[in-house]
Write a sequence for this structure.
């Protein structure tokens, strides 16, 4: 991670802190206790902004291309970021689409569609050409949601969303 | 005696079957690289919605123990840790497998995990009630100090940068402010959305931050979707490592078990740290440190004993103080909340049957995973060969289910996705997620105890320090911050040199 990213993320943190602090004035002020309901969010926002500034100063004063602090051990952070990944974008789009669809057509249908789509997105090229893999994906995509729906309804007596169209 | 009562409570077909399924499920998910004990718990959590509290929580404990122990399989056979808690197991386990001693490494790792887990369980069973008794005498000042110390420890030690850790923690605190203020009952940051009156529900937040963000990362790295290749190692090669062989290494076993337990008790550290620290200890105190990293069985013993002892430590702090020791125990905390039970010192008094059932389940889960891993290894290696592109979408569907079922609220699905995106961005920019989650969970309590303390002292801050426990915690908080800053400067100096 480079200096630019450090400054960018710190700036975002400061902006968030400023918005959060401003938003605290919308909270009704109470007198039931010494600190009141605004104190904690305001204190958190001030500290957050202060730490954002510390990060910017640290990034600016760090010598070389990147500071040692910035080498996060986390696997995502450690991976080399290479442009825009189509499966990544499609995965995020599918997650939001799931929320929209589940309201319309319910859990079972949405989950079947999601599993088919996401498995196809994540499938390596050789898998897409394999008839066996296609059958496995289709079977899994249909059986898993139906099984979950059955278990939750019959065993746990929990009704999963049926959607506006089927509910 | 009470532990025996716990065994009697769980001695029924339903609970035992659930525990077998939970341990097995945890082992399978934990064994898969990229999926951790947390993911196992996130997947299994929805299934507990229809269970009673004892069955549901015993099931989650079994999943947790299985999830923590599953990582050793891929660590030894593939050199890829199934969970971060097994990183150090790779250092010597994989070279042993490559040298034709896979069976020795695996059996040593399984026995070590078992002993570490049982040690943690026994300490938890005997120490838990005493810690709870002490905790009952704590005042709001003391709780404020304890939580402040917990938040600082997590923020300082979870990532490489304390500033980023503290930022993440404060972000969690900010997000926990959304909803109704606990003391004055006024709405904060709800923006007129009535469904936000109770704030963000813990389950979608946890699942989004950890599971969904991880899946987004995996989607970016499409190469990881292929099946795993075991062609380099043969799991049946080498001699079986027995308990007698294991006992020859008491020099390492005793200190690393204690180390794992203490690290588990400290919030935010968990098995991810304990296995590396234990490995480092074993290597530094060894008479033959040059053998480490080349297939030394002591390295495997140290790592696996410590990471499983950590589970007991994490459970101690969860059950006695209600503070989650790591990400996975946060899900168990959510499991408690789903059943309207608040873990903490009162739990031992008001829910004695449940507590001892959980302790008994913890011991039993360790026995179950040992039997399953020792005798069922070929099944797990077979399961590891299932391609991730089939598993990950199913994991996500279970995550959707878990988020929805927590409150029967579809909005929670959107919250889960949004927190997934947030978690991904934070990780990308190097912010650790553990402090954020611990900040999110503990912040309401921190605010409550601070405001209650100040109500008691009529706005004076100094009397808070008059309480010895609070004073010690606040001093420890300052010391932790200073030590982290010092260590950061030292690192920079070494780098510059």
């Amino acid at each position: 991670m480079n200096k630019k990213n450090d400054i960018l993320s710190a700036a975002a943190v400061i902006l968030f802190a400023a918005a959060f602090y401003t938003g605290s004035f919308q909270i009704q002020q109470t007198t039931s206790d010494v600190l009141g309901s605004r104190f904690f969010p305001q204190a958190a926002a001030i500290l957050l902004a202060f730490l954002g500034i510390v990060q910017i100063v640290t990034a600016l004063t760090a010598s070389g291309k990147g500071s040692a602090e910035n080498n996060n051990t986390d696997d995502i952070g450690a991976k080399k970021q290479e442009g825009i990944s189509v499966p990544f974008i499609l995965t995020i789009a599918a997650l939001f689409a799931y929320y929209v669809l589940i309201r319309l057509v319910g859990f079972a249908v949405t989950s079947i569609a999601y599993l088919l789509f996401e498995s196809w997105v994540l499938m390596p090229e050789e898998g897409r050409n394999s008839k066996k893999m296609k059958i496995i994906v289709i079977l899994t995509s249909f059986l898993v949601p139906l099984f979950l729906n059955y278990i939750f309804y019959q065993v746990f007596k929990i009704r999963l969303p049926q959607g506006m169209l089927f509910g | 005696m009470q532990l025996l009562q716990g065994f009697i409570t769980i001695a029924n077909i339903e609970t035992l079957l659930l525990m077998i399924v939970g341990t097995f499920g945890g082992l399978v998910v934990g064994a898969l690289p990229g999926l951790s004990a947390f993911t196992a718990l996130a997947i299994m959590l929805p299934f507990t919605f229809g269970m009673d509290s004892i069955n549901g929580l015993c099931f989650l404990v079994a999943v947790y123990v299985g999830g923590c122990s599953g990582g050793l399989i891929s660590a030894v056979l593939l050199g890829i840790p199934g969970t971060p808690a097994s990183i150090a197991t790779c250092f010597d386990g994989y070279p042993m497998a490559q040298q034709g001693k896979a069976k020795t490494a695996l059996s040593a790792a399984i026995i070590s995990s078992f002993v570490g887990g049982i040690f943690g369980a026994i300490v938890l069973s005997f120490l838990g009630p005493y810690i709870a008794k002490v905790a009952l005498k704590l005042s709001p000042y003391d709780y404020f100090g304890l939580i402040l110390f917990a938040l600082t420890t997590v923020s300082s030690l979870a990532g490489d940068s304390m500033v980023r850790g503290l930022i993440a923690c404060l972000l969690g605190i900010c997000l926990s402010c959304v909803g109704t203020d606990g003391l004055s009952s006024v709405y904060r940051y709800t923006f007129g959305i009535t469904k936000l009156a109770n704030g963000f529900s813990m389950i979608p937040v946890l699942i989004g931050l950890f599971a969904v963000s991880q899946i987004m990362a995996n989607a970016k790295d499409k190469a990881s979707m292929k099946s795993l290749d075991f062609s380099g190692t043969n799991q049946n090669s080498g001699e079986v490592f027995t308990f007698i062989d294991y006992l020859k290494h008491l020099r390492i076993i005793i200190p690393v078990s204690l180390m794992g337990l203490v690290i588990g008790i400290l919030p935010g550290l968990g098995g991810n740290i304990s296995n590396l620290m234990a490995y480092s200890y074993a290597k530094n105190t060894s008479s033959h440190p040059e053998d480490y990293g080349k297939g030394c069985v002591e390295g495997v013993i140290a790592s696996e004993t410590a990471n499983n002892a950590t589970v007991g430590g994490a459970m101690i702090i969860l059950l006695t103080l209600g503070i989650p020791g790591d990400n996975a125990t946060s899900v168990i905390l959510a499991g408690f909340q789903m059943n309207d039970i608040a873990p903490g010192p009162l739990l031992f008094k008001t829910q004695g049957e449940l507590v001892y059932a959980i302790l008994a389940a913890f011991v039993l889960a360790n026995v179950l995973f040992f039997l399953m891993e020792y005798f069922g290894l070929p099944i797990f290696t077979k399961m590891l060969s299932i391609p991730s592109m089939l598993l990950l979408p199913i994991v996500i569907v279970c995550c959707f289910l878990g988020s929805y079922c927590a409150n029967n609220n579809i909005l929670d699905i959107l919250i889960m996705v949004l927190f997934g995106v947030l978690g991904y961005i934070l990780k990308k920019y190097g912010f650790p997620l553990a402090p954020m989650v611990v900040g999110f969970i503990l912040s309401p309590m921190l605010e409550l105890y601070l405001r209650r303390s100040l109500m008691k002292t009529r706005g004076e801050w100094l009397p808070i320090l008059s309480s010895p426990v609070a004073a010690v915690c606040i001093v420890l908080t300052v010391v932790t911050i200073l030590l982290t800053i010092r260590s950061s400067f030292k690192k920079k100096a070494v780098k510059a040199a």
